[in-house]
Amino acid sequence: GALLVSERIDREELCGALSPCSLSFEIVVENPLELYSGAVEIQDINDNDPVFPSSQARLEISESVAAGARFPLESAQDPDVGINSLQTYQLSANPHFALDVQTRVDGSKYAELVLEKELDREEQRELHLVLTALDGGSPPRSAHVQIHIDVVDANDNAPVFNQSTYKASVRENTVSGTLVARISAYDLDDGPNGDIVYSFSSHTPAKVRELFALDSATGELRVKGQLDYEETKLYEIYLQAKDKGAVPGVAHCKVLVEVVDVNDNAPEVTVTSVYSPVPEDAAPGTVVALLSVMDLDSHDNGLILVQVSDVNDNAPKSSQDSYDVYVPENNVPGIPILNVTATDPDLGRNALLTYTLLQGDPTVGHIFSINRENGTLYLLTSLDHEDQVEFSMMVQVQDGGSPPLATNVSVSVFVTDLNDNAPTVLYPHPNTNATYTDVVAPGSPPGHMVTKVVAVDADAGYNAWISYTLLQATDPSLFSVALHSGEIFTARQLREDDGPQHTLVILLKDHGEPVLSASTTVSISVAEMVKEVLTDLTDVAPANDPRKHVTFYLILAVILVSAAFFITMLSVGIFKCYKWRQSKELFNSSRSTLYRTPGPFHHIDAVRGGLTPPNFYHQVYLTTDSRQSDLLCKKPFTSSPLGSRQSTMRNGEPGLYHQIVGTASQLPTPAE
Q: 424-526 in CATH: which number?
């Protein structure tokens, strides 16, 4: 199941400037057959240098240009994306120009030369600058272009329009005097040389001059005549601006005026052929007339419209069938974590969507909430990775049709772990006053494992990776602790002059950000036998264990429960014995009052079977304290109970009597 790279990947060749660059694929899994889709995002590396269109650029700048004038420069191109793309420009040091780096709407960079100190042709006829383009890689890649500037001798300044082309649109029924556009030009000269007069260019058609008027002082272009879309849909008007100098400077611009159609023409119906009179025997389907309909208006204004009412026949469709959301634990309650989007091609109320959270799990409704109108999913409480890692829920998107149609979208929220739990020491136990002492024999060689510090971290992954270091020791040279396992070893061979008791303070740290830590104390005794250690510990006063009272109460509770159980069982036994003796006495009394069948049938008791209707009176004959019985049917009811018993015995089959006797002989006695 490993996905491997089969050939060198070039992100720029695959996706160009598109970011992110993603390649989709599908995986087929057999037994059972399942289809999975996936995507690989190709991340960009800084493997391309910025490139200028040419290695040299030449500019001609008049010496009369005032400071602050800007001159656009050709931009460099870098096929990388993101931070690896072109980020900035640098200009070589010079006394006249500065560099201003601008950002376009799409995020690309371009540079402009800004004149800071006026030029003087008599002082310097040309300048040589170097423009450098840099990307944002590490280290950055660069490209250079040589800029050659020729300083041109000054002439009078000509007017300049603030834009070369103006665009405007007017409805065809616009009244005369309506403003269409306002053109504007400026001239850097002073006095009459800077005064500007606006006019139509000499090649402007007379028809345009009849439909539009231009104010020579303000540059306002207004409607003068009656426009007709059906006649002309677009007017291209050329205008000019002149100053009032002796040799006037002239600037030109163009105004594109689009005429918008208005539904000012009624449809025209023409009968092109009539079959009249129509014979009375004309067959159904006979052509009577040919009609043609025409409307001079355009687009929607020229259609014969047939309104089609909408039916709610489309269920909402989500942009994706499932969402996976990753939320760090300890989040701020009330934050939005996902926006479920869906569309419905129906119209009006049939396309009005509402979003509902289906609460299959009751806890989901207390933790998550969704905006019914826009599908924004909010997290109401702070999550804990150690409490629950994943939440699964279903969002229903329903339209407003009748009946409504709905689509379900599955959402899985995964809680990512943060390092919010310090390591917890399991051994030696930190929350007890008891002293844990480990023993090492004198003369133990280096590398002998004495004991082990056991700890856990409730976090996950790298945040739960614990390292152990020896923070403090009675003799730092005697013991060492393994960094990752917490095992404590002898660092050297124990000598006779080493102390008998050693205390180690172990520092435990996780690898999260920030790092959380804990510490524990380990006591080690140097002794041949554990008995020696116990002798050394006899002087240590026993700690007051608060759990001894709990143990006492637990033992007392066990004793009371056992006594109650014994008394209950004894009472049940006495009651059973009493019932058995009572039944035995009843049995003996009944045997004395009922007759016994002579001969071999002295083990059979005749017991009345109960009251039934006269025609269905039966008797049941049971053995003494029997667990098996045989049913004998009697002939019709007689008035004498004694006669009834005798009749029943006489009318029984002999074989049946033997069967009853045989059965009675196998039954246990009352004592059994």
A: 2.60.40.60
Instruction: Quick: pLDDT tens for 194-233.
Output: 889 999 987 788 889 999 999 999 999 999 999 988 888 8
What is the H or E stretch that residue 581 is in? helix 547-593
Residues in the chain: 672
Q: Where are the domains of the chain?
A: 11-42, 56-152, 160-260, 268-302, 317-416, 424-526
- Give the tens place of pLDDT for each residue, 463-516: 999 999 999 999 899 999 999 999 999 999 888 888 889 999 999 999 988 999
160-260 and 424-526 share one fold: yes
- ∠ CA 166-172-174, nearest 5°, is 85
Tokens 């450098």 appear where? 132
Predicted confidence (pLDDT) per residue in 35-48, tens digit: 788 899 998 888 88
Distance between CA atoms of residues 422 and 402, nearest Å = 57
Alpha-carbon distance of 206 to 473, in angstroms, equals 106
Distance CA 566, CA 72 (A): 105
What CATH number matches the domain at 317-416, 2.40.50.100, 1.20.1300.10, 1.10.3720.10, 2.60.40.60? 2.60.40.60
- What's the number of CA atoms in the CB half-sphere (13 Å) around residue 264? 11
Spatial separation of the C-alpha atoms in residues 229 and 299, rounded to whole Å: 12
Residue with tokens 């005749």: 606
Residue among 45, 115, 103 nearest 75 (CA): 103
- List, in order, residues 6 or more apart from 439 with CB less than 8 Å away: 524, 525, 526, 527, 530, 533
What's the pLDDT score for residue 607?
34
Q: What are phi and psi of 209, to 5 degrees?
A: -65, -25
207 alpha-carbon distance from chain centroid: 64
User: 366 φ, ψ to 5°?
Assistant: -85, -15
More confident residue, 649 or 440: 440
Residue 247 contacts residue 164 (beta carbons within 8 Å): no
Q: Which CATH class is domain 160-260?
A: mainly beta
Question: Strand 437-440 relative to strand 517-526: parallel, antiparallel, unpaired?
Answer: parallel
CATH for 56-152 (3.40.50.300, 1.10.260.40, 1.10.569.10, 2.60.40.60)? 2.60.40.60
- The C-alpha angle 447, 449, 452, rounded to 5 degrees, equals 135
**In which region does residue 503 sit, left (phi positive, over 0), alpha (psi from -120 to 50) or beta (all else)?**
beta
Q: Are 478 and 494 in contact (CB under 8 A)?
A: yes
- Tokens encoding 647: 């009749």
